[in-house]
Design goal:
With 298 residues, the protein is mostly helical. 76% of the residues lie in helices and 3% in strands. The chain has 11 helices and 2 strands. A two-stranded antiparallel ribbon has the order 1-2. Helix 3 packs antiparallel against helix 8, helix 5 packs across helix 6 and helix 5 packs antiparallel against helix 8.
Length: 298
């Protein structure tokens, strides 16, 4: 019983990360209506920028660890948000308006560009953060098998869930959220009602990039590093995990992604690791084929 509770506790940070990623992806997908690998690349790009500037502040500026991490986090937010806004305004909006199917191909190219930029900037070095906030917190006392999580796991989980909740409230109660929903439902009808679809599209892509940046920073702080290929891996994975709950409904996509994170952890605990991704992705493909109701726009 204690082992099972430990696996459930260990699934919380992963489920929260997947929920935040799926929520952000759904915001951009609602206006593009096309699979977009750029989102995962922005997630990995943010983690790499966080590592690069934290390393620079620690080794070159001789800052204390909290200050170095703050420099890295701010730099990652600025660079990733800037990249997201640039991609949304100069590339994705034009493609979505003229040749929507090209979005899928271009997103793969953009993902490769962001991955290579971070790799070249890091000189193909694997950077690691020093351990911090790794004190275990006992959630359930058992002399034989105590259930614990570290402070960084608890902080990351709480922050990610709080961000998802705050973003959901913003989308449902703000004027911009209503405009975003109008554009995602029917951009032409929204334009007739005076909604500037271009601004909403760019803002949605920037909002999505901001959430990807936050997820990348928190994930890197938790794992201690960010692999150069993580952007492409998470780009593909988030396409599936967001589709579980619905790619155009952010909060449902987040719930479905959390279920995905829980399933991954439990399979890792009780099943063969070699077959984990194959089994889970096969199940997701089957689920999507059987339950898909939404049709992509031509």
């Amino acid at each position: 019983m204690a082992y099972f509770l430990q696996q459930l506790a260990s699934a919380l940070p992963i489920a929260a990360l997947y929920a935040l990623l799926a929520f952000g992806y759904s915001i951009a997908f609602s206006v593009t209506r096309r699979a977009d690998l750029t989102y995962g690349a922005l997630f990995g790009f943010a983690g790499q920028i966080f590592l690069l500037f934290s390393d620079f502040a620690w080794n070159r500026l001789w800052l204390v660890l909290p200050a170095a991490l703050a420099v890295g986090a701010v730099s990652a937010l600025v660079y990733t948000l800037g990249a997201g806004l640039l991609i949304g305004r100069s590339i994705m909006h034009r493609l979505a308006a003229t040749s929507a199917n090209t979005v899928v191909v271009v997103s793969l190219g953009l993902a490769l560009v962001l991955m290579e930029l971070s790799r070249i900037a890091a000189e193909t070095r694997s950077l690691w953060l020093p351990p911090f906030l790794n004190t275990p917190v006992t959630l359930w006392s058992d002399p034989r098998f105590p259930v614990t999580l570290t402070v960084v796991q608890l902080v990351n989980t709480a922050l990610m869930l709080a961000i998802v909740g705050a973003a959901h409230l913003f989308l449902t109660r703000s004027a911009w959220g209503r405009a975003w929903r109008a554009v995602s439902d029917d951009a032409g009808a929204a334009a007739l009602c005076g909604v500037d679809g271009r601004r909403v599209f760019i803002a949605a892509y920037g909002f999505s990039a901001l959430l990807a940046a936050i997820a990348g920073i928190l994930a890197t702080a938790y794992y201690g590093t960010m692999d150069f290929g993580a952007g492409l891996v998470f780009g593909v994975k988030v396409l599936f995990i967001a589709a579980i709950g619905g790619q155009t409904a952010p909060v449902l996509a987040a719930v479905g992604a959390a279920v995905m994170g829980l399933s991954e952890t439990l399979w890792s605990a009780y099943g063969p690791m070699l077959w984990r991704d194959f089994v889970i992705f096969s199940f997701l493909v089957l689920l999507l084929v059987l339950t898909r109701k939404e049709q992509f726009q031509p």
